[in-house]
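Final report, section 2: Outcomes. Of the targets proposed, Nucleolar protein 10 is the one most frequently requested by collaborating groups, and we therefore present its record in full.
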Amino acid sequence: MQVSSLNEVKIYSLSAGRSLPEWLSDRKKRALQKKDVDIRRRIELIQDFEMPTVSTKIKVSRDGQYIMAVGTYKPRVRCFDTYQLSQKFERCLDSEVVTFEILSDDYSKIVFLQCGRFVEFHSQHGHYYKTRIPKFGRDFSYHYPSCDLYFVGASSEVYRLNLEQGRFLNSLQTEASESNVCDINPVHFLFALGTAEGKVECWDPRTRNRVGLLDCALSSVTADTEIEGLPSISALKFDGALNMAVGTSTGQVLLYDLRSSNPLIVKDHHYGLPIKSIQFQHQLDLIISADSRIIKMWNKDTGKIFTSMEPEHDINDVCLYPNSGMLMTANEAPKMNIYYIPVLGPAPKWCSFLDNLTEELEENPESTVYDDYKFVTRKDLENLGLSHLIGSSLLRAYMHGFFMDIRLYHKAKLMANPFAYEEYRREKIRQKIEETRAQRVQLKKLPKVNKELALKLIEEEGEEQQFSKKRKQKNLPSLLKDDRFKVMFENPDFQVDEQSEEFRLLNPLVSKISEKRKRKLKMLEELEAQGQEEEEEPEGKASDAESSESSDDEKGWVEEVRKQRKLLRQEEKLKRQERLKEDQQTLLKPQFFEIKEGEEFRSFKDSAKKQKLMKKTLEDRLKLEEKLGVLNVTDTTVGSKQATFKLKKSEQQRKQQEAEKRHRQERKSLRRSANHLKSRRGRGRLFH
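The predicted structure is given below as tokens.
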């Protein structure tokens, strides 16, 4: 059992803890209870109070003996007997249940509205009858005097099914395109339905005419609420003869008196989720409203929050057990939650032992840390002179320190530092003096780089602070304290060059504005050299500068730009004259270069030819190579181009080829001379 407290209201969660699987045998369950402490301490109020996957709706019969719940998967309904604290029966259905109603005092007569437009009737033995409505239904209510079922859904009509005659009656025609919820007042049987347009229509079943119309969407929008889109009605509940609570799809709950068109209270859940359920608790005059995330209990007269609960899983439905403090929820989880709140009322008769259990828990509360204790460390004890108390009953060890009585701590602190009040008084006086000095010019350490820019930023920040105080706006962060711009005031490479052409043209009045800052910077440097802390700004100078600034107009800007341009032209002309003088004075001296081994000197004309050749297009270079015989381009039979070319040989290859050529010529000449000698010798033999 889990205990939580909000606004001093204790809430006991009876379904908290682990649940045992159904397929375990009794012997294994007993063994697990002996081993696991959490399983042994858990409270299983109703055996197997859960669904296979998700539970969607939960209701209690009028006699209080049976609790019925529907869920998935597969679609089914389960009935739990509170006298036996176990499940009585389970019935599977053909399709998922949208909502259901218990018509009798017990479980003998039940009506299910299913998502496939089916309406299914069950009796005590099981399925009894099944019919179908023309449009998809979303909610229905039962009118006891006439035995009529009123169905609302994705249609402008309200379908009526009479259970005494067993036939459909003439439907009610509404102005709404669709209807989401409906309810019938238990006192005078007024029928009300909530539409998708955010309106509530009230009908008299006796005359079958509309008797009232409430525009809840317009009333739900207040100064504190922020909504997106048109709110539709998602929950509706009557309380007595005159009160009605309406829940919207944007998370507001409106409480109406039927005699007025304006709501008494508008309560916002601040989650923007549709209201799923609204219940009334008459003992404490509370309204219990729930969306898929939170259950809120608040006073219907003042709107003050009584308490709230946030389950672990999303909520689908909430059911308050009559005349008790028990609350049950259907969730997006297999287990259905059961809460017991003793402040709302006693426990039901079938679980009266809960009162004794909660009383015992309140009598023996767990040890907690209270506000009348002070946490101190060893260093704090040494400063107070109480280190000798370590190990005594006056100090309770906890983590890295000790807990001690707050009264003892104050006495020891007063004895250790009797002049604490004087120090506090001096600190307050110092703060007041600093506030009065805030308007003076304070010496601030300027950076080494871009001092004038830093001074300009400081002055602009002071002006912005004064402006923001008047307008009550937040101050913007300072560039000098921003790490992203730190390098701009540290690295000399980022120094602003005021003599550059761009700076002088983009800032035509920078000379006049900078004169004031230069004077102020010079004054600050003199004060730093003298070692003074503060010095007020001399009167008269700033006013002159401000008057000169205010007197400049557009003509002054234009004239200043023209002057700067003239100065730049003159400076450029002087620079050109200086360069010409330097060129005339310099004498050209011959320079000698050494050629590397294995290379030959080529004239500068060859390099010039190569540069000209490289500037030409590819087409021109190919034509030139064709003329020289290096490249040959021919057309093929297929239609493409075929190019044959000769690679240019290097200097070494050319020398090697020339040497080989000379060698071949020498060998040829030697062979010729040898053949000539042989022929002469042969002729001489013939003559002999």
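Residues 373-416 form one domain.
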